[in-house]
Specification:
With 88 residues, this protein is of the alpha+beta class. Helix content is 27%, strand content 18%. The protein has one domain.
Length: 88
């Protein structure tokens, strides 16, 4: 499992992206670029099964030491730094 570690707070952050695109859409190249650009993110290609969503949720909530789980959608944007501990 890929993750980011915040040394100052001794916190591990796991990012999992469940993504999809149609084979006729031009987005495949964009996802390949994102996957290369963010090597600490776990990208999971959605194949249309609820099992994929459940796996993301189960992995995120059962990791040793996991305190929080956040589920977001693709049009959410973070434009300022934030402290994860202050966000809950």
């Amino acid at each position: 499992m890929k993750y980011l570690y915040n040394k100052s707070t001794d916190t591990y952050l796991v990012f999992q992206v469940l993504y999809t695109y149609s084979s006729t859409e031009p987005y495949q190249a964009d996802y390949i670029k994102l996957i290369k650009e963010y090597p600490f993110v776990n990208f999971i290609k959605e194949e249309g099964h609820i099992d994929e969503v459940l796996k993301v949720i189960k992995t995120g909530t059962t990791m040793p030491g996991a305190k929080y789980f956040c589920f977001m959608v693709d049009d959410m944007v973070f434009f300022k730094d934030f402290d994860i501990e202050d966000s809950v």
